[in-house]
Predict the 3D structure of the following.
Amino acid sequence: MARIQRLIFLFILCFCRYALPAQDVHYSQFFHAPLSLNPALAGAFDEDQRFSAVYRNQWASVPVPYETFFGAYDQKAFLPWLGDNWLGLGGAFTYDQAGDASLNWLQLALHGAFNWRVADEHVLSTGAQLRFGQRALEPGQFSFADQFSDNVFDPSAPTAESFSSTASGYFSLGAGVNWFYAPAQTRTRAWAGLAAAHLNKPSISFLNDGSIKLPMLFNIHLSGVVEVGERWDVVANLLGQRQGAYQEVVGMAGGRYHLSLEKGRALALQLGAGYRLSDALIAYMSVFYKNWRFGLSYDVNTSPFIAATNRNGGPEFSVQYVISHVKPPKEFKACPIF
């Protein structure tokens, strides 16, 4: 069985290579990885600095599970000549690995956004992204047909199979727009945006032919928190993505209860569920404690791939840490001396 699985993977790698770069990685807790969605989300939050990380491990029941890690940092940059507006600056790191040959994808990205306060409660932003990526594999972990003799596998036996390249790198450009709604004296918040990645359609191939273009990735995202009571909020998130022939739609909804509203000791618990269309059911929980946000979700596979996964999806962990700076008063008034 292991031999058959390896041969199938090799077939996909060699003869269906057009599908390999067909899609970027994805997350169930995409709302905790904003820079993975849209460069215009850099700086589009209440606080001043934000650290984010997501770890995903899916399909542990298949021979080699898929693992993904995402880390990001972004901050606001206020400049005197910008007035009430600000810049959002950030960077992100993504590493994804899957399969017997450790097929992996390393991505480093820089984000920049201009956040324009068009009204007291409304901010429009536009952002750009510069991304470097590399696909790589380790073919030495494959088992080839000519290494079998009388149905016995000899890993030290020579093979006629060869790869002209085991890594392929690229640069790509991305852009996006976002609307951020943040009324004062309430916990209600909303984000809505459009973004596109790989606008230059960079080439990526293990055959050094330069003919495989990475399709552009388009997405639309909506997120909202509505305060419905002194301690209760309703939360909803929606994401739609399309890249080449691949498309994804994810809807999430839940409730957040604030156990403590005391400043410096704020504590809230959020529970919810969602569905990735034609793929998986998702259950999640989040804990908000002071400046920390922790998330845990689990996917239950519903696609035809259940023949291999036995409906097992995978756990996903997320963490965010935000920092707020004390703002100086807009007007300075000297105390009179008596």
In short: Residues 94 and 140 are 24 Å apart (CA to CA). Confidence is low (pLDDT under 50) at residues 1-22. The longest helix spans residues 2-15.
